[in-house]
Design goal:
The chain has about 240 residues and is of the alpha+beta class. The protein is built from four helices and twelve strands. The strands form two sheets. Strands 1, 2, 3, 8, 9 and 12 form a six-stranded antiparallel β-sheet that branches.
Length: about 240
Amino acid sequence: MQRRELLVGTAAVGATALSGCLGTQATGSGSNTNTITVTGSAETKADPDRAVVEVSVEATGSSATTVRDDLAAQSDQLTQALRAAGIDDDQVTTGRFAIRERRERPREDEQPPRAVYYGTHSFSIDIDSVDETGSVVDTAIDGGADSVDRIEYTLAESTREDLRQQVLEQAVSDARSEAEVLAAQVDSRIVDVQQVSTGGGGVSPYFGDAAVTMESAGATELQPGDVTVSADVEVTYEIN
């Protein structure tokens, strides 16, 4: 069962802050409208229901062509291993591909400096079941991956939308509560909403320990952390 925890935050209101939140706007008829502008924020924490693992294959050789061919062979071996483990091709996307040359100091019998080529090809694996993340890491390493570069725990799109809606509603409620306190301090009440805007917030994934290499032994055990979804709003209210 997914655990969710809702947190709400409001700024402390003092005498100085109070005067800064009040304003006056001119209307088309020439009269003035008194306003209060406040911010509201909220966040929720939830267990992740999606993971992304980034792995790489690496190769070294005396020419770019050799490195390219080695990377192609290793990449094919890796993708075949992932398919055999039940991971669909649409769950795997190609990331960074690079081959670079490095001039190494020659040995005594070598002139000029020797050129060595290094290559890397990374892949991102999208995992629908977080509990299978460790197994996917093991499959990738057994299938020829030389390193695990990133393990990201996040949320499926539908979960993101649901939680985003919740925190937006709570942030607006938070702003309304603060505005009512401010209005009461100047013997006024809220009569209308002039403007609402949102900025900041979003989804903050949890990044697991990616220090896993081909020398790692045994089954990989991972402990995912919470994903945070937050929202910030700014609301201007008309008061009288």
